[in-house]
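Hi support team,

I submitted a single chain yesterday and got back a structure, but I'm not sure I'm reading the token output correctly. Could someone confirm the output below corresponds to the sequence I sent? I've pasted both exactly as they appear in my results page.

Thanks,
R.
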Amino acid sequence: MGGAGLFNLVRRVLQLQLLTVLGGLVLAWALAGREQGVSALLGGLIGFLPNLVFAFLFGRKDPGKTAHQVVRAFYIGETVKLALTGLLFVIAFHLPGVSALPLFIAFAAVMAVFWFSLLY
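Hi R., thanks for writing in. Yes, this is the structure output for that exact sequence:
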């Protein structure tokens, strides 16, 4: 797969993750109400936003990058992604009315989009 195909794949995964966030919001809100819907939205965003940041940090096209620079960018991007994920969980659980179950289900659904896209 060429470089352009890789970036198209990343874009597609991010789009599918965003659709999963919105789907989780609508489904949780319809089935269980506003509070559950907002919790699902937060969980989905906790999964989506760090991946978006990683894509911007790691995915910049620069044909002049050495292998060392690519690996370094990957590790920096992954570190920022993990730290941001943790921070967003801390923030979410300090908000009033957040329900853990829809938050974690939506987070897991967004993460599953990434893992299943690797199989595809």
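A quick pointer for reading it: Residues 3-32 form the longest helix (30 residues). Let us know if anything else looks off.

Best,
Support desk
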